[in-house]
Amino acid sequence: MQEDSSLRRVDPSRRDPHWSATTFFVVLGLVVLISILSLFLKRPISDATAAMTGTTLNEPVTQIEQYDYGFEPHHITWRAGDQVTISLHNRSTTHWHEMMLGRGYDYTPSAFGPIATQFDTDFWNGIHVTFSGANHVDNLCVNKAIAKFIGPMPNIVTGGNFSPTLQPGGSLNMTFTVPNKPGTWHYGCFVQQYVHYMAGMRGTITILPR
Amino acid sequence: MSSHNTYTKTSLRIGPLSERDLRKNRFGMSLYCISQAVPYFLLINIRFVIAGNFVPVGLNLWLGGIIPTVALLVGIIPLFTARAALQKDDIPRVRSHVMTAMLLGLIGLLSLLFPLWFHNFDALSPFGEIDLISLGVASFYTIIALIVAWGVYLRLGKGLIRKETGWGIEATIWVYAFNAIAWTALFFTLDLL
Amino acid sequence: MSANAAGLSGVDTANRQRRRIAPPVIRGLLWAAIGFLVFNTLVSQVIDRQPYDPFVTRVSATVGWAAAVIGWLLGVGAWEVIVRPFFGHPVEWDIPNDWRRYFMFSTDHKVVGLQYIFTTTGSFLLAGLAAMMMRMELMNAKLWVFTNPGAYLTTVGIHGTVMMFSVGTVALVGGFANYFIPLMMGSNSSAYPRMSGLSHWLLPAGIATVFLSPLLGQWTTGWRAYAPLSGQDPSGIVFYYLGVFAMTTSSLLVAINLTATIIFNRAPGLTWNRLPMFGWGILAVSLLTIIWVPEIQMTFIISLLNLIVPFSLFEQTGSPLTYMESFWLFGHPEVYIIVVPAFALWQEIIPVMGQKTLFARQWGVLGLVFVMLFSGLVWAHHMFTNMRNSEMLPFSFFTEMISIPTGFSYLVVLGTLWGARLKFSTPTLFVLMSMFNFLIGGITGVLLADPVINLQTHDTFFVLSHFHYTVIGSMVFTWLAAAYYWLPKLSGRMYNETLGKLGAIWVFIAFNSAFGQMFFVGLRGMNRWVAVYPQYLQNMNFSISMFAFLLGLGFLFNFVHITWMWNKGKPVGQNPWNGKTLEWFGTPKPGIATFSPLPHVETGFYDYSENTPPTPSPPKRM
């Protein structure tokens, strides 16, 4: 907006407005060049930097939301060797939800016929998992995974497959390197005698070979 | 002389604005208000689409509610009295009134920011999300209003705003009052309706 | 500081070594880099540390970007021209009278207009290059140019976003209107010159942000940023939201500035009845921008928060449909923001070229205004697949209704052409081609407004071709018409008529061959948003790609021709077309007031009837 009151001028000759053309074109050219290089050679540059500094590259976080009754997203693709953080969040305001990951079903006989209580093969066997940001975690069973904790310790239980169970509104981050177990894996919530799973609370993960 | 001045004569003048320029500036401010009212309409609309008219039990109506509303609305008054004082060319009085408005705006800002961190509703719920966004939007416009008032306060101190060149004060009234009224409408529809 | 400066005596000044300022653009880049580094580090390393300590997170990129844009704007000159005076310091900003003025903050509407013209042309070429890469990929049914579908979709998204927000919305409004609207109004300045200077520099920031979005990761949503897809991609979409925010803010500032210019900076005697058609068009577009751009900005801010906090408002667990509705509520008026200035320019150029009074001027104005009013009522036709049948009917009705005021624009031009001794110059040719193309775009638009056809062709190349006919076909062709039409005014030189006609025919044939075939490939089952498609479509796609490359070369030919003639063309008098609007009666030179004294308008601008005095004496006193 126009605010004339403030437009006083001083002697204009104090500074020379004829800025250097050379500086302008050289620096601008360099900036454009760097932008183009970083745009098209992002992967080689970051790989080289990581190799030089000895750090591993962080892959983006996989946000997984649990709700009544489903997972969002319900299909995920990972590549073996990637470092992945699952950020699990229970969106439900009323229900406890877990997330198991595996293949095949482990049936328990009952009066109503066999009930799948968990997967037969546990995906997490032997994987190094770092847990962080635990918040309203009801219990955590790590089974045969090798666990490390950053921040508040969740309530650890034993028995059954690897499964974090979140209270309504709870959340938990799990960071790990995707193992070389290519193919299709399933995840799901087996809480309340398999009813959540049956209602659609499940998804698939495609792991691409390295 | 190799370089020239880009400011044409009309905008170089320190003298008073012509009647036409004054109307032009008021028109510009009204376009600002019209265009910036649209985000508030959208927020209110989305709130009813996503959260219905649900209001959580035990919502703290004071912080992020009544206190900023009152502080911002009351803050408009000293700006008008500042403009009245400017007509009498009583600059110290104008400054103190602008300062009063800024202090009230600051109280409003702090009481808007506070519930962004401390609130007793679930942040990750339809109501909570839209309420937090609204608090953030209101804080943003309050900061804008404060910056405008601050600039005017400093220019008053340098003797650049006088009776004849009082557009700065009027611009502050526009921006400040727009923020206060828009926030009041938002608060009313979000927390009270 | 100000006291010091004011107190310097003349001798002191003369003795003092005059310090050369740093190139403002370079200073802007430096301040932007510093702003990004400081705020990004502060957020990612101190305030909001994430597990494993990444240096750039979604949150830190957002905050760092905001700091970078502020640093950039201050660096190019907003610090001296806006911020320091705002806090009561004197203005210290001198602009050399040479090419340097285009690379620094300027308040001269002619400089700002040329800056916009350069920036939009540059972004048109870059986004066009993205289109060429896409067509290259689609030459083959297999994935062969891009290594993965995500990279292809990101390219599509960048192409669409930049073409929409920095070419379609901006080229005619920010570029030609910033330059010519004050001239047409008989004024030496736009209404708010400092705001106008600021608005241009937001545009390159936005364009760079969108082009660099792959640095943060892919995004597969296209320029529509559909939820919940936007929440599932890697983080590139963060830079989409931020870049679009900068570009749309630029458009918003231009709209406010030009509206006030048209209302308050009219020369004495330039009544509403005499307002040029381009003025009406820009007024209509500005009102659309002022209403709808803040709407989409808020929607995108909510989407951004959705992504970085993260919330779930627009996620699958929230309400993705609300996002779509909010988006298309803006998205359809956006189409008219692009097209209305083109309609207005047809009505500006044809009477001059035919030397014939504009036919039914009032109906032309009514057409522009009603297109503007209806544009807010048609948006849901983009989402027929998400709606109940009963909800489709009103939107289908209003969409078909909008062809009536659009038809006014056609009838006004046709009535003017009727019996005119039309000068078949390059601008005329481009306007007629533009009308033909928009006719095709409009007729297929009526088809698409029909739910039966809409549901069948949803997300196919039929739709894609339809909106390219409306955007390239009308707006880009009219953009070139305006460039040729006003070249004598911009540069004082004339283009080469043969080369100009060759360029027009070249792009017309290439455009219609490429996009005309897309209707048919779409009807045969070619989907949008796919890098890989069934083998049976390959022949037709190959042929489309060939014509697309030809079209790209054609645009390049026109730009090279215009640039060449800008510098080397034959010098020409100040009114070669014998136009009557005010811009032809001044000699605009950046940095110098055009009209001195201000003109006094005594008749309308479109009256070529017998009794008006012949050229060169204009029908008004200067």
Write the layout of secondary structure elements.
The complex is a heterotrimer of chains A (210), B (193) and C (622).
Chain A: E1 15-16, H1 21-40, H2 42-53, E2 61-67, E3 70-72, E4 75-79, E5 83-90, E6 97-98, E7 100-108, E8 115-122, E9 128-141, E10 146-149, E11 156-157, E12 163-177, E13 183-188, H3 195-198, E14 202-208
Parallel strand pairs in A: 2-5, 4-14, 9-10, 9-11
Antiparallel strand pairs in A: 2-3, 5-12, 6-12, 7-8, 7-13, 9-12, 13-14
Chain B: E1 3-4, H1 9-12, H2 19-51, H3 62-87, H4 91-117, H5 126-157, H6 167-192
Helix pairs in contact in B: 2-5, 2-6, 3-4, 3-6, 4-5, 5-6
Chain C: H1 2-7, H2 10-15, E1 19-20, H3 24-47, H4 58-86, E2 95-96, H5 109-138, H6 149-168, H7 171-184, H8 193-211, H9 229-232, H10 236-264, H11 277-308, H12 320-354, H13 361-374, H14 389-401, H15 403-417, H16 426-449, H17 451-457, H18 461-491, E3 493-494, H19 497-523, H20 538-568, E4 570-571
Antiparallel strand pairs in C: 3-4
Helix pairs in contact in C: 3-4, 4-8, 4-10, 5-6, 5-7, 5-8, 5-20, 6-8, 6-10, 7-10, 7-11, 8-10, 10-11, 11-12, 11-13, 12-13, 12-15, 12-16, 12-18, 13-15, 16-18, 16-19, 18-19, 18-20, 19-20
> What coarse outline of chain A follows from CA principal-axis ratios?
elongated
CATH fold-type name of the largest domain in chain C: Cytochrome C Oxidase, Chain A
Strand order of the largest sheet of chain C: 3-4
The general outline of chain C is globular
Report on the architecture of this protein.
The complex is a heterotrimer of chains A (210), B (193) and C (622). Chain A has 210 residues and is of the alpha/beta class. Chain A is 17% helix and 44% strand. Chain A is built from three helices and 14 strands. In chain A, strands 2, 3, 5, 6, 9, 10, 11 and 12 form an eight-stranded mixed sheet that branches. A five-stranded mixed sheet of chain A has the order 4-14-13-7-8. Chain B is mainly α and 193 residues long. Chain B is elongated and about 55 Å long. Chain B is built from six helices and one strand; from the N terminus they run E-H-H-H-H-H-H. The model of chain B is unreliable at 1-13 (pLDDT under 50). Chain C has 622 residues and is mainly alpha-helical. Chain C folds into two domains: 26-91, no CATH class; 110-585, Cytochrome c oxidase-like, subunit I domain (Cytochrome C Oxidase, Chain A, Up-down Bundle), CATH 1.20.210.10. Helix content of chain C is 66%, strand content 1%. Chain C has helices at residues 2-7, 10-15, 24-47, 58-86, 109-138, 149-168, 171-184, 193-211, 229-232, 236-264, 277-308, 320-354, 361-374, 389-401, 403-417, 426-449, 451-457, 461-491, 497-523, 538-568, and strands at residues 19-20, 95-96, 493-494, 570-571. Chain C is globular and about 75 Å long. Residues 1-15 and 613-622 of chain C have low confidence and may be disordered. The chains are: A alpha/beta (210), B mainly alpha (193), C mainly alpha (622). Chains A and C meet through strand 1, helix 1, strand 2 and strand 9 of A and helix 1, strand 1, helix 3, strand 2 and helix 8 of C. Strand 1 (15-16) of chain A pairs parallel with strand 1 (19-20) of chain C, so a sheet runs across the interface.
